[in-house]
Amino acid sequence: MKRFMLLHYGFEKPTPEIMASWGKWFEAVADRTVEHGGFHGGAREISHAGAADLPMGMESITGYSIINAESLEAAETIAQDNPFMASIRVYEITGE
To answer: Where are the domains of the chain?
Structure first.
């Protein structure tokens, strides 16, 4: 079994319907989930040019999930069922 990180992009103020959809998805993938979390509050980008605050919007990374799956394609199938706001990026995690 391989591990994959799903990066959730996009933010809009959560409604009860959005929260219910997310809850159902997390329940559906609970047996494959290693870890998940969300980001809130401030965000900052650090670069050679300095630091800049990042607003929460549709281009923001707003959460992550680490899941177990057999392949990138299997992880993609799991991600497609997620009630994402803008998009999800799927990365295979290497190492321990």
So the answer is: 2-93
Sequence-distant (≥ 6) Cβ neighbours of residue 51 within 8 angstroms: 44, 45
Q: Which CATH class is domain 2-93?
A: alpha beta
Identify any residues that bridge with 35 across adjacent strands, giving them in sequence order.
66
pLDDT tens digits, one per residue of 61-93: 989 999 999 999 999 999 999 998 899 999 999
Q: Residues 34, 68: contact at Cβ < 8 Å?
A: yes
**pLDDT digits over 6-52, tens only?**
999 988 888 999 999 999 999 999 999 999 998 877 789 999 999 99
Tokens of 33: 């989930």
